[in-house]
From TrEMBL:
One of its GO terms (molecular function) is translation initiation factor activity. RNA-binding component of the eukaryotic translation initiation factor 3 (eIF-3) complex, which is involved in protein synthesis of a specialized repertoire of mRNAs and, together with other initiation factors, stimulates binding of mRNA and methionyl-tRNAi to the 40S ribosome. The eIF-3 complex specifically targets and initiates translation of a subset of mRNAs involved in cell proliferation. This subunit can bind 18S rRNA. One of its GO terms (biological process) is formation of cytoplasmic translation initiation complex. Residues 169-181 have a biased composition (Basic and acidic residues). It is found in: Cytoplasm. Keywords: Cytoplasm, Initiation factor, Protein biosynthesis, RNA-binding. Residues 153-181 are annotated as: Disordered. The keyword Cytoplasm applies. This is Eukaryotic translation initiation factor 3 subunit G. Component of the eukaryotic translation initiation factor 3 (eIF-3) complex. Belongs to the eIF-3 subunit G family.
């Protein structure tokens, strides 16, 4: 192991000699020296020390220096030359104090503990009856009772409210009979027709209140007929006079009054 050498004398200032009296050397003036590396990279280090008898002992060491190149990134070298984070600029050593309070470190709880706790809760709060049919029937009865309570409250609010005059035309389906009188039936429609097409065509005659296009459930295509309800009967009559036997989508439209529903279908 290479010893630490502290000397103010360079190796060229002193040439070692075998006949030189080493006892006369002042240790304060010369503590050691070293030669320059030779062709093989070996240098000679000479040092002096005192033994237990007080005699001066000369120590000669031959040391070979080997340089191993190491590649380093430029950014890493730049960071190494920078000042460390939160390091004081002064060279004075800081004060290190030991805390007098006892510090407890909480151990992290594993996921296994939570899983076991959840399993225990499931066992505690698990229902005793797991019959699905019975549970479904009880839920239906519960919702039915809640809906009946809400309907009863709504009826009581209507009874308690102020009474208003209702014209006969609006009582017991009066609006429906009035709208049936303003409804026309359109037939001979193509399968590609849509409700927006009917609204675009028949709205040119008058104000449309409702439009219904019969469709197939599977294909959602038109069945070939529709019903158009206007605001007034005169507007419905104008639609019959203007749009009956009119060409639309390579077909002639049949526009007529819609037949009123039978008495059995009236409510």
């Amino acid at each position: 192991m290479e010893a630490d050498i502290v000397s103010d004398t360079k190796w060229a200032d002193f040439e070692p000699d075998e006949d030189y009296d080493v006892d006369s050397i002042n240790a304060q003036q010369l503590t050691g020296f070293e030669t320059a590396p030779d062709a093989d990279g070996i240098k000679t280090v000479t040092s002096y020390t005192k033994n237990r008898q007080g005699q001066t002992v000369k120590i000669i060491k031959r040391i070979k220096e080997i340089r191993i190149p190491r590649r380093c990134h430029k950014s890493a070298k730049l960071r190494a030359s920078q000042d460390s984070f939160q390091v004081e600029q002064s060279t004075e050593s800081g004060i290190t104090m030991v805390s007098q309070d006892e510090i407890f470190i909480e151990q992290p709880v594993s996921r296994r503990f939570f899983n076991e706790e959840e399993d225990n809760l499931d066992l505690i709060y698990a229902p005793t009856d797991i019959n699905v049919t019975r549970a479904t029937r009880e839920l239906k009865q519960k919702f039915k009772s809640l809906r009946e309570d809400a309907d009863s409250v709504f009826d009581m609010e209507e009874r308690d409210g102020p009474s208003k005059y209702i014209p006969p035309s609006r009582k017991e389906g009066g609006d429906r009979r009035g709208s049936d009188e303003n409804t026309i039936r359109v037939t001979n429609l193509s399968e590609d027709v849509r409700e927006k097409d009917l609204l675009e065509l028949f709205s040119k005659v008058g104000r449309i209140q409702r439009a219904y296009l019969a469709k197939h459930k599977e294909t959602q295509s038109s069945k070939g007929f529709a019903f158009i309800t206007y605001t007034t009967r005169q507007e419905a009559l104008n639609a019959i006079n203007k749009l009956n036997r009119q060409g639309y989508d390579s077909l002639l439209l049949n526009v007529e009054w819609a037949k009123p529903p039978s008495k059995e279908r009236q409510f």
